[in-house]
UniProtKB/TrEMBL annotation:
Residues 65-425 form the Molybdopterin oxidoreductase domain. Gene3D superfamilies: 3.40.50.740, Dimethylsulfoxide Reductase, domain 2, Formate dehydrogenase/DMSO reductase. Signal peptide: none annotated. Coiled coil: none annotated. InterPro entries: Asp_de-COase-like_dom_sf, Mopterin_OxRdtase, Prok_Mopterin_Oxidored. Keywords: Iron, Iron-sulfur, Metal-binding. This is Molybdopterin oxidoreductase domain-containing protein. It comes from the Bacteria. GO terms for molecular function: iron-sulfur cluster binding; metal ion binding; oxidoreductase activity. Pfam families: Molybdopterin.
Length: 573
């Protein structure tokens, strides 16, 4: 085994921490800039996971070799285009991509879009050409951080630790941990962030604090963008966004002559027009001139692979059909191969997901027996991250983390690279590069940060507000991450959280319905939740019964919050 004994946290999280083995204990690396010796509760839970004991076919234990035989026989029997390769983000190491290489060569249908950051990512790309965060030092060197639709101190606790002494402004319908630490909390109505961005732009102009040099030299379309902000009287925004003009004034007092950063999260873009909404926020930031400065900028979930060449690329002549991940119909495939995902909990419209899985031959390639494995015909156990050499890039900052294999793979488990290699050999496809070559590439390649050339402002905004369909009985649906879970993994909280003004009481059993489905929940009251909002932690086993399995406007991605829900007392749980 390798003497370096480094381990990258494989979990889907901005921080991408680096751990190492010190005196037989796993500790956060001191030298790794963002990790700074600390790990988190989810990493501790990951170490205690209950891994699969054995491969299974029709619920019977079989050997690993038999499981690979069953899979390849099935694949040989099938029309490749009637198989689906579905990959989640259970492990964010680069080596995960090996399996996709096989299924691409084989001819499977693949997915496009994302269950996560797709809409917002596209919005940034449309404005700046690529989705790249500025170097983290620019965040550290800023004075004021505007946290917009992101639970910064919980979902990227290490990035937060580097800047925790700054002045914060939070824009979020929920009184999150970071909202409580902020000088200003704008408790915005859901899906009105583009309106607030337009309003703030209008104010910036009125106060003459737009960045004229940036607008003239590095951008296109600023006048068009500014024109949109003039379409409405300023006071009309108060009622729709729920943000008072007094707070807007305070916002400008706080940022005046300061170096400003925007740290934007998923919350703003879980809607049909997620890309447009994000682009409005990025346009506001550009108008204020936060881009291209010595300090400050806009951070989102960056494309961590930007600047790297995909080491698992297949020949360009191979073309696969792609379906939108948000609206996959599992039943339309003869075989579905699921890797590192738990769509029964994490994908939208749970009822449709389960019905679909029941009507297909389902292969689950996962480390643990998750909710989706209940519907699997074949389970192939993936080896633990501790036994797989890998490299982890981050979508939050520019530091990478290295993973050495520090233990032997458990019996009857297989790594992604190994599984792909076995299948590629069985089918006579083009072999992967060697593991060493791939790992060396990702370990040694350095990517220099490059500023975008020209910023293109959004010049037309067409967003259908949810508040148009709001009445006195329905609620906005909000989901966000929990400190104690990582998406559907670890400690799961299945409650619905409501404000006291909802009229419900603690522990009430309620039936919640939307036009996509219904489910029962137990109520917890919390004054942190904005009235008229119903809050659920991501990973809640029932919440996605309520969410739309439809794609957003432009990015083929999920839009979990493009829905209003009805809540009634129920006699059953
Ligand atoms: N502890 C922990 N950390 C995690 C994860 C985890 O599960 N647990 N998951 C990881 C993953 S996969 C991701 S993608 C990231 C995501 O991390 P974040 O970007 O922080 O995403 P969320 O927690 O989904 O939502 C962020 C915030 O948006 C708010 N919000 C909801 N709707 C709106 C709206 O309309 N407008 C505004 N302004 N705000 C809104 C929510 O209240 C919430 O506070 O976190 C990663 N880190
Ligand atoms: N309503 C609602 N739904 C959401 C969200 C939300 O905010 N609200 N968040 C969305 C977001 S941001 C995301 S990223 C998705 C996440 O959705 P998924 O990508 O499906 O992630 P998880 O549900 O955490 O399931 C990951 C699974 O990967 C498996 N796994 C872990 N490590 C490995 C490994 O090394 N190899 C293999 N082969 N398998 C492994 C584990 O068994 C685990 O169950 O969920 C989305 N769903
Ligand atoms: S903060 Fe994120 S990357 Fe760091 S150990 Fe925890 S889950 Fe892993
Ligand atoms: Mo995510």
């Amino acid at each position: 085994m390798n003497s370096n004994k480094k381990v990258a946290c494989p979990l889907d999280c901005y921080d991408a921490c680096q751990a190492e083995i010190i005196d037989e204990n796993i500790k956060g690396s001191k030298e790794h800039f963002t990790t700074n010796s600390k790990l988190c509760v989810n990493f501790a839970q990951l170490l205690k996971e209950d891994y699969h004991q054995s491969p299974k076919f029709n619920n019977e234990d079989i050997s690993l070799e038999e499981s690979l035989e069953v899979l390849s026989a099935k694949l040989k029997d099938n029309d490749a285009s009637k198989t689906l390769f579905y990959e989640g983000s259970g492990n964010l190491g680069k080596m995960q991509a090996a399996v996709k290489n096989f299924f691409t060569q084989y001819g499977s249908t693949l997915t496009k879009g994302s269950l996560c950051d797709g809409g917002g990512g596209l919005g940034i790309e449309q404005g700046r050409g690529s989705i790249v965060n500025p170097p983290i030092q620019k965040l550290i060197d800023s004075d004021v951080i505007v946290v917009w639709g992101r639970n910064f101190s919980v979902t990227s606790s290490h990035m937060y630790n580097l800047v925790k002494d700054k002045t914060f402004i939070t824009i979020d319908p929920i009184k999150t941990d970071i909202a409580k630490k902020s000088d200003i909390h704008m408790q915005i109505n859901p899906k009105t962030d583009y309106e607030l961005a337009l309003l703030l732009t209008r104010f910036a102009n009125m106060q003459d604090i737009e960045d004229e040099e940036f607008l003239e030299e590095h951008s296109e379309g600023a006048e068009w963008f500014f024109d949109i902000t003039r379409n409405r009287p300023v006071v009309s925004y108060e009622a729709t966004t729920g943000v008072s003009l007094a707070l807007v004034n305070q916002f400008f007092e706080l940022i005046e002559n300061k170096k400003v950063s925007f740290v934007v999260g998923l919350g703003v873009q879980k809607y049909f027009e997620g890309a447009q909404i994000m682009r409005c926020i990025d346009s506001l930031a550009a108008y204020l001139g936060v881009h291209k400065k010595q300090a400050g900028g806009v951070w989102y979930l960056s494309n961590s692979s930007h600047g790297y060449e995909n080491q698992f690329k297949v020949k360009s002549s191979i073309k696969n059909k792609k379906v939108s991940v948000a609206q996959v119909d599992f039943s339309s495939y003869d075989l579905v191969f699921i890797q590192g995902a738990n769509p029964v909990v994490s994908a939208p419209n749970t009822k449709a997901v389960i019905e679909g899985l029941k009507n297909s031959f389902v292969v689950c390639f996962t480390t643990t027996y998750n909710d989706t494995c209940e519907y699997a015909d074949l389970i192939i156990p993936a080896s633990s991250f501790l036994s797989k050499a890998d490299v982890r890039l981050s979508y939050g900052h520019e530091y990478k983390a290295i993973s050495n294999a520090i233990e032997n793979p458990k019996e009857n488990t297989i790594s992604e690279y190994k599984l792909a290699s076995v299948l590629i050999e069985k089918f006579g496809f083009e072999a992967l590069k060697s593991e060493e070559e791939i790992l060396d590439y990702y370990t040694n390649k350095t990517v220099e940060y490059e500023e975008f050339e020209t910023f293109e402002f959004i010049e037309e905004v067409d967003v259908e507000p949810l508040y148009k369909h709001k009445n006195s009985t329905n609620f906005y649906l909000i989901t966000a991450k929990s400190k104690n879970s990582l998406n559907s993994q670890f400690t799961i909280d299945n409650h619905v959280y409501l404000n006291e003004s909802s009229g419900f009481k603690n522990n009430d059993a309620v039936k919640i319905s939307s036009s996509f489905g219904e489910a029962n929940f137990t109520v917890k009251l919390s004054e942190d939740i904005k009235s008229e909002c119903a809050f659920f932690y991501a990973g809640n086993k029932k919440v996605n019964y309520l969410t739309p399995n439809k794609e957003d406007e432009e990015s083929f991605s999920a839009m979990f919050q493009e829905v209003l829900i009805e809540i009634e007392l129920s006699s059953t749980l």
